[in-house]
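Researcher: Re-running this chain for the archive, since the previous output was lost when a drive failed. Same request as before.
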Amino acid sequence: MAARRFKPGKIIIVLILTALIWIWADLALDETPPPRQARIFVGASADRFWVSFSQEPWLDVEVTLSGPHSAFRALDRFLQKQALDNRFEFVFNASAEQMSEPGGYRLGLLDFLQKDEQLKRLGLKVKDCEPQIADVNIVGLVKKPVTVECLDENGLPLQPEVNPPTVEMWVPESYRTARVQLSRGEIETARLGPITKRPYILLAADQKREAPDTVEIKLMAGESPLSEATIYPSRPGIVFSPTIQGKYEVKINNNNMILLTSGIKIRATAAAKQAYQAMPYHALLEIGEEDVKPGEHPRYLRYIFPDEFVRKNQIQLNQAPVEVLYELIKISPDGS
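Model: Regenerated structure tokens:
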């Protein structure tokens, strides 16, 4: 009996068919895992616009994806390679979404996410997202010169020589200044010679937009004539709007009362400190008609330094302003 001849070609065909069957089965069986965290970033826009999601540079969303198991494995490898902490990132381009003029817009997020090319290349689809609508704000900016102000690391003003004293940049219409902030080390260096810094504006909290040009900062040599001091105990006062004077009393909880009297940190000359210490009130809590509604109201204290020393730059606040929570209690006609 003749021996059967080994036919490797048939074996290869069987293996290829088997692999194709497994691939087809993987593609045919879409998975829908629990929603994933994602973040949509505002992409670069024209200089004359500030684009944001309700004044924020990004928007966090939950995205529900569907697709074959192999596509999710590819997504996980991609996220791990990009060190994205298992969170997919999208870039929002306002002009590509036909939002090219200042104003407020509503962005349908599901439609926006479903157009993402990266997910399509991975073989994944966006089935759902939360939230489904985003508010997009576009603010028009104007190009104009703004004065450069210099602050230390605590946000207190410095009095340097700035060259040039103004920079031209795109800013909101109401802006008049740009700022430069110096660390303690930079302040010491600037006392020895000019240092170069790039001014910036704050469009919103932690949202900087830098000027295209730099400036030179030079501080006077020698120690500042202002010394750190604390006015303790501080004497706060309360000022009422005339229309509600005598009709309401102010209720402040104990924690806020401690803040009111715990002392005020300043930088001042000896004469300025003495004059401030002698004032009848060191800070005022101002109560207006808008506060006549139920619940607690927040208000920052207004610090009242002696005018003479303010004009000479001889006294400054050396702490963050204190915010007080209070509520108004209506006084009954019989005074009880």
